[in-house]
Amino acid sequence: MIKISRMADYGVLILAELAREPEALRTASGLSDTTGLPEPTVAKILKTLTGAGILRSARGVNGGYLLQKTADQIPVAAIITALDGPICLTACADGVEDSCAVRETCSLKGRWNGVNALIKSALEAMTLAELLESGTEKVQKKA
Amino acid sequence: MIKISRMADYGVLILAELAREPEALRTASGLSDTTGLPEPTVAKILKTLTGAGILRSARGVNGGYLLQKTADQIPVAAIITALDGPICLTACADGVEDSCAVRETCSLKGRWNGVNALIKSALEAMTLAELLESGTEKVQKKA
DNA sequence: CTAAATAGAACTTATTTAGTACTATAAAGG
DNA sequence: CCTTTATAGTACTAAATAAGTTCTATTTAG
Ligand code: FES
Ligand code: FES
Fold first, then answer.
1. Looking at the domain that runs over B6-133, which CATH code has it been given?
2. B142: nearest CA partner in chain A
């Protein structure tokens, strides 16, 4: 069904919430409450996003998370990559040597690369801010 | 990991083989041999692609499959849709009502639609022929 | 020192995808 | 008109992946 994982979807949801008050420290359980997503999952996503440099964290009492950059500096691609791994439609794309079973006999080795690049650049060009606002040039307008 | 299924990947591989002799009837087991893919899987894919109107089939002795249209009339999107279901990155896009658990509280209902449309149109614009040739305007050039 | 928070890893469960098997139908040829 | 070779369709099983949970360690304010 060619889709991103639920993790990435949740991730955007959480980031959207964080973007509403970019300066405030928010705890995992607090975010779980406001988003309605299960707490352990939220916590896991927050850890991952922190590791990827999208969020900053503070430990200890009164700790929590906040955005490292503003929403318009965070490409959608970065979020997806952090939570879902590399954006790469097929097993036989660039670099990935061992994944494809029929690489030897295959007549279209690496031909998907163009499609990959297309989608990747589309997701890199779009920022979290644009996703939240909708209706910018990059997104289709809806009357 | 945002990817298409192996089925779609195999499907393109099989279509590539069929496109080499667009007039010839090829059997499932024959295609399994030339592509090196497991026979039952090939047969399943061929059935699906026939149902989707991408292939034509002939039953009985000396039966087999051939392309219904030429490779430049088959959008990549059609192949993926046939084998993988609709191209729709997220659960909460247009139409899909029941999939998203947090739809009520969610602040970005349907915001992914723009991204979806972007990717979908990219895949609709690219044909099987272009995928096989590579190096056309739509695909990134590689020196 | 304690309570409240994140960090990180390991594990279990659920979901999805891939692969297999089986039955039915159709056509060609003796 | 029966046999053989092929596709059509469906249902089932197994494998892979993704999601969710749990537990332990670390950090810091009070
Ligand atoms: S399908 Fe993987 S290398 Fe061709
Ligand atoms: S995440 Fe599904 S409706 Fe918002």
1. 1.10.10.10
2. A114
